[in-house]
Automatic annotation (TrEMBL):
The keyword DNA-binding applies. PANTHER family: HTH-TYPE TRANSCRIPTIONAL REPRESSOR NANR, TRANSCRIPTIONAL REGULATOR, GNTR FAMILY. The lineage of its organism: Bacteria, Pseudomonadati, Pseudomonadota, Gammaproteobacteria, Oceanospirillales. Residues 18-85 form the HTH gntR-type domain. InterPro entries: GntR_C, TF_FadR/GntR_C, Tscrpt_reg_HTH_GntR, WH-like_DNA-bd_sf, WH_DNA-bd_sf. It comes from Marinobacterium zhoushanense. Keywords: DNA-binding, Transcription, Transcription regulation. This is GntR family transcriptional regulator. It comes from the Bacteria.
Length: 245
């Protein structure tokens, strides 16, 4: 379960019952955030149905939602694949992320509640703990969830919708175009600095920190667009493990 899901469960206003396609959608979304589902991975409906124990109709609904967010490409008669942005698309995604993050940061400085700021800090502590114990995938996901929770705090649903798509797309372009062998992730020190600026309601400082933060992501990108062939059952082994226990 993601930390954002846990946060929502602690809020009675957001404790809505999830449908089967909600659950499948969240698993695939998290796998993309964790970079376990790299660009170009084929999402076979039959295999996913076996993995999650649901019908292909449920799988199609989840994939359709991901397709709407542009992180999955739905190909008529050929099935779905995880999106593989081109170089130009990657640049557009980074630019769009800057625009949305600026608006989100400004709104969060206006709307942040004390309890939400504490939740942000806990997200970053959890993120740091993941990287410290070598759980890179979970750490990368929590880095993304930090930005998604900021978008929730902005209290602007359209921005949150854009941000969900952009954060997952950024995870894909980092996996696809990153320089060097080591996987990058957001700096939790930068996250803490940003939280401090938000707590102080200092918009100009918070926005400057966010733009600096995004600079680091952009500077790690290169033209390497190789994608690997991936095994869905291996990627979702955690789900299979729970079903067999």
């Amino acid at each position: 379960m993601s930390r954002l899901t846990e946060i929502k469960k602690s809020d009675p206003k957001k404790g809505e019952k999830k449908t089967q396609d909600d659950i499948v959608y969240e698993h695939i979304f998290d796998a993309i955030l964790e970079q376990r589902l790299p660009p170009g991975t084929k999402l076979n409906e039959e295999s996913l149905g076996e993995i999650f124990g649901v019908s292909r109709t449920i799988i199609r609904r989840a994939l359709s939602r991901l397709g709407y967010e542009q992180v999955v490409v739905l190909r008529p008669n050929r099935g779905a694949v995880v999106a593989s942005p081109t170089i130009d698309e990657a640049r557009q995604i980074v630019f769009a992320r800057r625009v949305v993050e600026k608006a989100v940061t400004e709104l969060v400085c206006d709307n942040a509640e004390t309890a939400q700021i504490e939740q942000l800090k806990q997200l970053v502590r959890d993120e740091q703990a993941c990287f410290d114990r070598g759980d890179l995938g979970a750490g990368i996901r929590l880095s993304g969830e930090f930005h998604l929770y900021l978008a929730e705090m902005a209290k602007n649903p359209p921005l949150l919708s854009f941000q969900r798509s952009l954060v997952s797309l950024c995870s894909l372009i980092i996996a696809q175009f990153e320089k060097g062998e080591s996987k990058s992730h957001c700096s939790y020190d930068e996250h803490f600095e940003l939280i401090d600026a938000i707590a102080q309601r200092d918009k100009s400082k918070a926005v400057a920190l966010m733009m600096h933060h995004l600079d680091h992501i952009e500077h790690k990108l290169s033209l390497d667009d190789e994608a690997a062939d991936n095994d869905l059952k291996a990627i979702f082994s955690n789900v299979l493990g729970r079903k067999s226990s």
